[in-house]
Amino acid sequence: MQANLLQEARRQAEICNACRYCEGYCSVFPALHRERAFSDGNLTQLANLCHNCRGCYYACQYTAPHEFNLNLPGILADVRETSWEKFAWPRGFARVFQKHGVMVAIATVVGFALLFWMVRTFVPQGGKGFYAVIAHGTMVAVFAPAFLLPLVSIAISLRRYWRATGGGGLSLSDTIAAFGSAAKMKNLAGGHGDGCNFEEEDRFSHARRYAHQAVMYGFLLCFAATCSATIMHYGFGLYAPYGFWSPPKLLGVNGGIALTAGAAWMVWLKLKSDRHLGAAAAWGGEMGFVLLLGFVALSGLVLYLLGGTSLMPALLVLHLGAVLAFFLLTPYTKMAHGFYRLTALVKEAALSRRT
């Protein structure tokens, strides 16, 4: 199956390399035109460099019903999803999530929420705020490994990816260039800065770019909120609960709003998009990931708003269950695509510099 997929990707890449009409559309085409022949590693790198903006498909004169039947965004999406499953550690979990993402997300959130509800029986006396429901030490004991283990898994996966796509050394300048491209979502801006064609065929739009930026920067703000709370707790002896004007609350509330809005926007765009231009078999997994990410942010905001009511214990365990599910599922959901895509951008920066 994978061999047939790569062979079809190779056929389409060779036709695109001969045509070159889409040169300059995104980072994929300079990388594609640099090659004379395409190894499996080349195709995997191109697939993870592709942001699935779909502009090349709507510009192409060789799509169906032409006999060449090109669908480069679709075939690269299939190769990309297959590569994530192949490189994931442990293998197998990614395949399950891609096929049944929504159900897996719901089951893990509910299961972990019930687990946290049972943990309440071990709460020590004297806690304040959330710690009156679940002790601080219990949260640390659960979430520290839940945060570190996915990072180890992703590191192993990226090492496999790097080797499969040709290996090579890393440089600071290439890494900075890749982060700069990712920060601006350069490849979703289109070759001429008009945006891409993800949601409305040949109509150019920056909607997908802005939705991704809202999700990315919202997530980073939420992560910064957690880091600032950790520093205040262990570094300065300032313990939760914190007031609204404290760094954890300001960062977390604004990040949660951006993340919730961005995730909802992405769901809306995905529902409007043409499925056959993406990895159709992984549509459920992609949707499950976006819904889980949005629910983590939304449940956090609701918990903040209703934290002083009798609903707080139930909302807390539900939010913690969602956060724990998100962390543990990260290496096997589309959350991993950010790490792969950043790695692909680093490699592309290095290859561009050498040629």
From TrEMBL:
<keyword id="KW-0812">Transmembrane</keyword>
<protein>
    <submittedName>
        <fullName>Tricarballylate utilization 4Fe-4S protein TcuB</fullName>
    </submittedName>
</protein>
<feature type="transmembrane region" description="Helical">
    <location>
        <begin position="101"/>
        <end position="119"/>
    </location>
</feature>
<feature type="transmembrane region" description="Helical">
    <location>
        <begin position="281"/>
        <end position="305"/>
    </location>
</feature>
<keyword id="KW-1133">Transmembrane helix</keyword>
<feature type="transmembrane region" description="Helical">
    <location>
        <begin position="251"/>
        <end position="269"/>
    </location>
</feature>
<dbReference type="InterPro" id="IPR012830">
    <property type="entry name" value="Citrate_utilization_prot_B"/>
</dbReference>
<feature type="transmembrane region" description="Helical">
    <location>
        <begin position="311"/>
        <end position="332"/>
    </location>
</feature>
<feature type="transmembrane region" description="Helical">
    <location>
        <begin position="131"/>
        <end position="156"/>
    </location>
</feature>
<dbReference type="InterPro" id="IPR036197">
    <property type="entry name" value="NarG-like_sf"/>
</dbReference>
<feature type="transmembrane region" description="Helical">
    <location>
        <begin position="214"/>
        <end position="239"/>
    </location>
</feature>
<keyword id="KW-0472">Membrane</keyword>
